[in-house]
Amino acid sequence: MTTESTSVPPAPGPWPSAGQGHSPGLASLAPQRGRSDRLALPPRRPAPLRLAAVPLIAADGLAVLAAAALLPEPQRGLRLFLLVVVCVLVLDAHAGLHRPARAGALTSVLDELPALAARAGVAWCVSAAAVAAFAPALAIGPGALCSAYATQLAVVCLARAAVHGLRRRRARAHPRSALVVGGPAAARRFAAALAQHPEYGIRPVGIVGSRPDGEPGLPVLSSAEEIHRAVIQNTVRDAVFLTDDSSLVTLFQHYGCTTWRVGDRDQGGPMGDHLWGYACRRMVPLGERRGQAAKRALDVALAGPALALALPVLLLCALAVRLSDGPGVLFRQERVGQNGRLFTLLKFRTLRPADETESATRWSVAHDRRMSAVGGFLRKSSLDELPQLWNVLRGDMSLVGPRPERPYFVTQFSRIHTGYADRHRMPVGLTGLAQVHGLRGDTSIEDRCRFDNHYIDHWSLWQDVRILLRTAAGLVRPAGS
Prior knowledge:
Low-confidence stretches: 1-44
Number of domains: 3
Number of helices: 16
Helix content: 40-55%
Strand content: 5-15%
Largest sheet: 7 strands, mixed
Shape: flat
Mean pLDDT: 78
Strand order of the largest sheet: 3-2-1-4-5-7-6
Structural class: alpha/beta
Distance between the termini: 6 Å
C-alpha cells in the first residue's frame, strides 16, 4: 500500500462519471457488485465480420499472377508465384495496405503508390535472389525481373483503383450514421461540412456535448441514456471526436463504434486522408494496438521463470510471516484492474487489520506500531509484492502498468483528479513509469496519474523493457511501497 499527500474524503460514494472533468454528466461507470465485477457499461455490440480487406488482398494476388504470366516459360512456376505472393501480402499487410478504409476516406491509389512500389520491388528482388540461390537454372534475368515488376505495379494500381471507386460509390449511396463529440458550435460546423459533401459517406445524426445549446438542427446529447438511445435507434457506426475525451472513447468503443479523431494538424498520413480538410485518424482500442500480444507474451515469459526462481525466497518469507505474525501468510485484497475489472491482489501479510473496513479504507499503514519487524522488512524490501507474480501469470496484472488501487480510493481519486479513471485503460502492473520516477510512498497522486497516462499514451514494448530494467536497478536501494 502507498501513502499519498492528497487528502481523501472520509466516506465512500458512487463512482464518478466517465467524462468527469471533460463532459459532466456523461457515461456513468459505477461498479455493480450484484451483477458483475466489471464496470457497468452498456451491452457490448458484437464486432462486425472483417471482410473489407478481401478485395485488396485479391487485387494484390491478381497483380502478381499477371506479372508471373509474362515471365519466360523456364522461370514461370507455382513456387515462384507463391513466393512472390507471400512476400507481397506480408509486406503490404504490415504496412496497413489491407486495412479497411476509414469511414469517408477518399482513398486514392496514388496515395498508396509509393508504399506499393517499394514493397513490390522488395518482394521481387527477394524472390529472384532465392531462385538464383536454390535453382540457378531458373534464375530471372534483369530484363524479365523489371518487366514483371512493372506489370505487377500497373495491374495492382488498376485493380485497387477499381476497389476504391466501388467503395466510394457505396459510401455515398449508403452513408454511415455518426455522432460528433465536441463543443456544439464546432461540432455543428463539422456536421454541416459533411452534410454538404455526401461523398465522404458519413451522416451525422447527433452531437455529444456537455449541455444543449438551444440551436436548431442536430440534437445535443448530454447524458449516457441519450447516447444509448441514439446509438441504438440510428445504428450509429462511428463516433468522431473534435476534442480529447478518453472516457467517451472507451464508451463508444464498448458499443462497437469506430472512433475517429479529427482536427489535429500533426496526425500525419496520406494527403487524401481527411474529411473536407479536417485531418483524421482512427483511435485504435488498446486491445487492438500492435504489440499487446507481445506485452502479454513478455509478462508470461518473465513472470513464469521469475516465480520459479523466487520460490525459495517465497517459502522463506512465508515461514517468517507465519512465525512472526501467526496464521494467514497471504493477504488478499480487492483491487481495480483494466477497464474497472475487480480482481484479488496477493501480498505477504505485513499487518493484520482490525476488520475489513480498515483494510478497504485506511490509506497508510507505513508507521503503524502493530507492524512487526518482519512486516517492516518485507515492505521496505518490496518482498511483500512477490506473490503478485501469480497475478501476472493469471492475467489480472501485467509486469508494467499503473499500480492497482482499492475501489474506495479509486472512487475518491477519480473525483478529485481529472484523468485518474483513465489509468484503467491498460492492465495494471507490478511497477510502472511513475514508480521508476520515485512516485512511491508519500507522493502526489496528481503526479502519479500524469505519469501513468503518459505511459499509456506512448506505450511500446521497449518502454516496458526499460522500466523493468530501471526497476531491477532500483531494488539495490529499496524504499518500500
